[in-house]
Amino acid sequence: MQEISTKPYLLRALYEWCTDNGFTPHIAVRVDNGTRVPRQFVRNDEIVLNISFEATSQLQMGNEWIEFSARFSGKSHKIEVQVANVLAIYARENGQGMAFPVDPAAIGAAPDVSGSDGPRSSELGPDESGAERIERREPVASTRDDDELPPDDDGSKSTGRAHLKVVK
């Protein structure tokens, strides 16, 4: 019998930790042909999704797929993401969460939906414990009805482009 990955269990645990602490859980996802998301919000073959209770409907976090409905610019979309494509999960308010290893073979197989080469595996790296601590990553797309992105930490207007910074 094939062993089930720990990744879906870690995703569910960190989602629960975020909600128990009043934080807003976000997931960074590598987009490929099997990913069902609104393509106009994809940047560099990635999308960041707010998966909080308030932003989603019928959220199901299974061992293979994460599925839910969410609103983008006021229009409802069915979202389907393979667990294998989740790059990170973190709390929007403080950036704490976990990033997952990127499979270089899978990145090459992803379609070029944005005209870029895709994410670089050097953007993600383990600390001494093997886990990741994420400082802050701005959402590419908000699943809320308002289209305003929060300002960056320095008070400047956000560009909406996602950035991942590993803090050691």
Automatic annotation (TrEMBL):
Give the region (Disordered) as residue ranges: 100-168
Kindly list the biological process annotations in GO that this record carries. proteolysis
Its keywords, alphabetically, are:
Hydrolase, Protease
Under InterPro entries, the record lists: SspB, SspB-like_sf
For molecular function, the Gene Ontology terms on record are:
peptidase activity
Q: Where does this protein have compositionally biased stretches of type Basic and acidic residues?
A: 130-139
Pfam families documented for this protein: SspB (PF04386)
Keyword set includes Protease:
yes
Q: What is this protein called?
A: ClpXP protease specificity-enhancing factor
Originating species? Caballeronia sordidicola (Burkholderia sordidicola)
Q: What is the lineage of its organism?
A: Bacteria, Pseudomonadati, Pseudomonadota, Betaproteobacteria, Burkholderiales
